[in-house]
Amino acid sequence: SFSVAIVGRPNVGKSTLFNRLVGKKLALVDDTPGVTRDRRPGDAKLVDLRFRIIDTAGLEVAAPDTLEGRMRAQTELAIDEADLSLFVVDAKMGLTHVDQMLAEMLRKRGKPVVLVANKSEARGSDGGFYDAFTLGLGEPVPISAEHGQGMIDLRDAIVEAIGPERAFADEEDDDEALTDVDVPFSDAEDEDEEIELAYDDSKPLRVAIVGRPNAGKSTLINRFLGEDRLLTGPEAGITRDSISVEWEWHGRMIKMFDTAGMRRKARVQEKLEKLSVADSLRAIRFAETVVIVFDATIPFEKQDLQIVDLVLREGRAAVLAFNKWDLVEDPQAVLADLREKTERLLPQARGIRAVPISGQTGYGLEKLMQNIIDTDMVWNKRVSTAKLNRWLDAVQTQHPPPAVSGRRIRLKYMTQVKARPPAFMISCTRSDALPESYVRYLINGLRNDFQMPGVPIRIHFKSAD
Ligand code: GDP
């Protein structure tokens, strides 16, 4: 098992998170900043993860008598002791210099950190969430410790930070036993199904619109909002005052990232300039699903492909929008051509959804929205361990892996380690010798058999000899 330290300045919600993870009212929650909490170590459970939360009580005692000094000493000890730190910031209040100081300390130590943006259920927490990206500790996980929101995302972030091998180290022996004796996974199944059904559509879906300059991003956002608050065209003006805009689409809350607003936030009084790579990257990281806008009259420019590649490398779900469809003369032929190019030029996202639209006339926007939501569901997809192992047997029988020095490679056990995007772990003999072509065979098979088109799929291999 591994150990976790919960660090952060007072009043960000550390104790509430502790209580939620340990499931007991051990910690004393006090709203007064700086009040010493009575925290004890606990055995934490988070979905299917088990870990120890290390004791940070008493660490404050010997520290210098300033808030900063106490925080510094406490955090230092906690991160040294733990395998991983959960660094909690308050998305509602925003960041303070103490957060910055703690972040710098965490960065310097170089140990695994999961950045947690707590109180994310609160109105106006987007700014704090966005600012948390600037701490240089990777992507913040928006949660609400109080309301229990974002716990599955937190679980996934922990698995990612510490690595699936380590996160599930204890289960190793059981896993081997299960595959060898072919027990029907009776115990594991319930918990698995629970995770499989975990898609949460009560949360707003975070969407970003990216694309080359003049592809029609601003026009599209305006159209979505049914208003004309953003000026478009070569002398584009900026009238947004927040970094995101939110609206409801057939009962689902959609939160769209406003790159213009964000740019302004990053540098006040900045002269208007075209979207830079850094801007796009920020938008991509903010989002869950990214709409990549192509100008259908000049599609698949080098820059278009670079943007798609960036989105997928960041592990995001992506939907292509072929914009300015109102200018296309032979829609059927052009669409067939674009679809063929998509499959050929973007093999890393086989099955990616591509929708012809016109931001100007509004054509295709319903369909685009539906595709955004469908893609998000695929990105969030979780397949039960029982199903995966039945599948693994079947694909291996159909197309056995090669032999190495007279012994056939055997794929023994498979489990999904996280979603968003889907990532799997397979334990197998001689994982080092498994050919790249076989890995592609597995990925394509997963895509087809579990309906996961258009999202990046990752497989970790663990040797099991
Ligand atoms: P951005 O740089 O990606 O935000 O692009 P803009 O939204 O500013 O659009 C660039 C230009 O393309 C403007 O002159 C728009 O009027 C035009 N444009 C955007 N979408 C469409 C569309 O669907 N059809 C047509 N015909 N023109 C469009």
Automatic annotation (TrEMBL):
Question: Its function?
Answer: GTPase that plays an essential role in the late steps of ribosome biogenesis.
Q: Where does GTP 2 bind?
A: 211-218, 258-262, 323-326
On the tree of life, the source organism's domain of life is Bacteria
> Which molecular function GO terms apply here?
hydrolase activity
Oligomer status and interactors: Associates with the 50S ribosomal subunit.
| Alphabetical list of Gene3D superfamilies matching this protein | 3.30.300.20, P-loop containing nucleotide triphosphate hydrolases
Origin organism is Rhizobium oryzicola
Question: What are the EngA-type G domain coordinates in residue numbering?
Answer: 2-166, 205-380
| One Pfam family in the UniProt entry | KH_dom-like
Q: Which residues bind GTP 1?
A: 8-15, 55-59, 118-121
Q: Which family does it belong to?
A: Belongs to the TRAFAC class TrmE-Era-EngA-EngB-Septin-like GTPase superfamily. EngA (Der) GTPase family.
Q: What is this protein called?
A: GTPase Der
Q: Which PANTHER family match?
A: GTPASE DER (PTHR43834)
Entry keyword set: GTP-binding, Hydrolase, Nucleotide-binding, Repeat, Ribosome biogenesis
Cross-referenced InterPro entries, in alphabetical order?
A: G_ENGA, GTP-bd, GTPase_Der, KH_dom-like, KH_dom-like_a/b, P-loop_NTPase, Small_GTP-bd
